[in-house]
Sequence to fold (102 residues):
Amino acid sequence: MQLFHIRYRNSQGTLMRILNAVSRRGLELTSVHAEYAGHDHAVTMMLHASAKQMGQLYREWHSIVDVINVHSSPALQEHEAPVWAGHPPASVAEQSGRAAMA
Fold:
């Protein structure tokens, strides 16, 4: 499991192009966290990717004009995951809330 850290200028569609590169390869996104980071924006993604897929992702992300920096690091152990990584997506939380009400 790898954590990918990408800094980008928040122009129209940049984040979607970054995420689309992962989706097109059929990789499962374990978690995604995007935030304002000074004058730029940053997205951190946790996913499983082979060495070949990582190379493809790096090439594609670097080819996006508004991407400033891309780097990765090994993901932390599950019990040491960042706080935001443990939160379910809003759609999952809504579904479980609806099920509890039924």
Remarks:
- Strands lie at 2-8, 29-37, 40-47, 67-74.
